[in-house]
Write a structure and sequence with these properties.
The protein is mainly α. The protein has 18 helices and no strands. Residues 439-450 have a biased composition (Basic and acidic residues).
Length: 459
């Protein structure tokens, strides 16, 4: 190859990139599956343990609180000790905590294990996305990082399919449902074995020989560290993401991510209750309406993955926020809204959310340097889960107090906050190299962004 390009940023897409994207997607799949399966499991878990409204709320929110801890702690740990070790370890934890959930006898045990499961899920966000981002060419980075996160919605839809086939297991069906994420964790664990460490991270730690070996393993013996720009050897500091020039970016990521996930997790966790309040009961609710809403999140991701490289990150985020505000507000503004209009509003919300929710992992991976990239993703994950946990815990009470339409109106207000923040804070990073986005100001990043970067030529 000519030495005028960046080996990773300007490389053509290869089978290695596709495999790494698939293996990294296992975490978001399990996340979507595990967070949605609880809504199905509660159907048999609630009467089996005679759960109170408070216990139901805590069970729904426990994994989200765990994600807060997992993201906040293990993003930093990943920047300190490396991507590869954590890439494997968190899946072992996912499998163990899922299996133990099947043997719970009391509500506090379910709450504790759902919390620990959330810790493992939260850890995977910064681990898998930072490793993947550091290997992807800039021309495909947004799309492939996005595809990884769209798989979250596939996992959520799969939860309802598994729930449908578990209907005949009787009053203890919840035990199988809570243990079922272990199956996908083990499959993903086996697939990830042997994944190389990020050469960018190795270079940032001054481990040049290991970085050179990693590059040769992936791209061929003719390549090495000379084919990458220098990575400054900087010690990882947790507080760097709260200092200039990164504080503004951390605030932006925290606000827009939180505004996206509060209504998202509330709808996913309590979709059966929302639809039941408008007259949809039984299998038609859970395996009809709820499954369809979950599938629409996936459907929305298809045009989103095209738009993220076509119109860019900023326009996609602002546009989807605007549509969601309208969709969630409509049921509250129409007196005696019909079940059809209510379901249509949820469908529009699902499609729009699916079209842009993956920006939650694209933006922080592009806006922060290697030495704190995972820390930044972890902080975004953690901060956003404070809101989503509170929203999930309060959702049952909101449904009782304000009704389904009122609960969605609260989601519209939260989304409006995200819209306003994005208008003022969201930069455009399409086509920019990770080195550029990490070292430049927002205006400089946008000027350096290349919408149609040419691939590296090979000698």
């Amino acid at each position: 190859m000519t030495r005028t390009g960046h080996l990773i940023d300007d490389a053509p897409l290869t089978s290695f990139h596709k495999k790494l994207t698939a293996f990294s997607s296992g975490g978001p799949f399990i996340d979507g599956f595990a967070l949605s399966i609880i809504g199905v499991a509660l159907i048999t878990l609630e009467p089996a343990m005679e759960l109170s409204a408070t216990e139901i709320g805590l069970i729904g929110a426990a994994s989200l609180v765990g994600i807060f801890v997992g993201g906040g702690v293990f993003g930093y740990v990943t920047d300190k000790i490396g991507r590869h070790v954590m890439y494997i370890a968190d899946l072992v934890a996912l499998a163990v905590f899922s299996v133990l959930s099947a043997f719970c006898g009391e509500a506090w045990q379910v709450i504790l294990l759902r919390f620990l499961l959330g810790v493992a899920i939260g850890a995977d966000y910064p681990i898998a996305t930072s490793l993947l981002a550091e290997f992807l060419p800039k021309r495909q980075r947004g799309r492939l990082l996005g595809a990884m996160f769209v798989v979250w919605a596939v996992g959520a839809a799969a939860a309802y399919v598994v729930g449908f086939f578990a209907r005949g297991l009787g009053p203890d069906a919840w035990r199988f449902l809570l243990a079922s994420p272990a199956i996908f964790a083990i499959i993903t664990l086996l697939a990830r074995m042997g994944t190389p460490e990020s050469p960018r991270w190795l270079m940032s730690k001054g481990r040049m020989a290991e970085a050179d070996a990693s590059i040769k393993r992936v791209f061929g013996e003719q390549y090495g560290v000379a084919d990458l720009p220098e990575e400054p050897v900087v010690s990882t500091s947790f507080f760097r993401v709260f200092q200039k020039p990164y504080l503004r970016r951390t605030i932006f990521v925290a606000i827009f991510w939180t505004a996206q996930v509060i209504p998202l997790f509330a709808v996913y966790t309590f979709a059966p209750d929302l639809l039941e309040s408008f007259g949809l009961y039984g299998d038609a609710n859970l395996y009809g309406g709820s499954l369809l809403i979950a599938i629409l999140f996936v459907v929305g991701g298809i045009p989103g993955l095209w738009l993220v490289e076509k119109i860019g990150r900023r326009k996609l985020l602002i546009g989807s926020f605007a549509i969601i505000v309208v969709a969630l507000a409509v049921p509250a503004l129409i007196p005696d809204v019909s079940a059809k209009i209510f379901f249509l509003a949820l469908a529009v919300f699902a499609i729009s959310s699916g079209a842009s929710s993956f920006l939650e992992v694209v933006y922080p991976n592009e806006l922060f340097p290697t030495e704190v990239r995972a820390t930044a993703v972890g902080m975004g994950t953690a901060i956003s889960r404070i809101g989503s946990a509170a929203g999930t815990y309060l959702m049952p009470m909101a449904l009782v107090t304000f009704g389904a339409s009122g609960a969605l109106m609260i989601g519209a207000v939260v989304t409006l906050v995200g819209l306003v923040a994005s208008i003022f804070l969201a930069p455009e990073t399409r086509g920019a190299s990770l080195s550029d986005t990490a070292s430049k100001t927002e205006s400089e990043v946008e000027k350096s962004a290349d919408p149609d970067p040419a691939p590296v030529t090979r000698a």
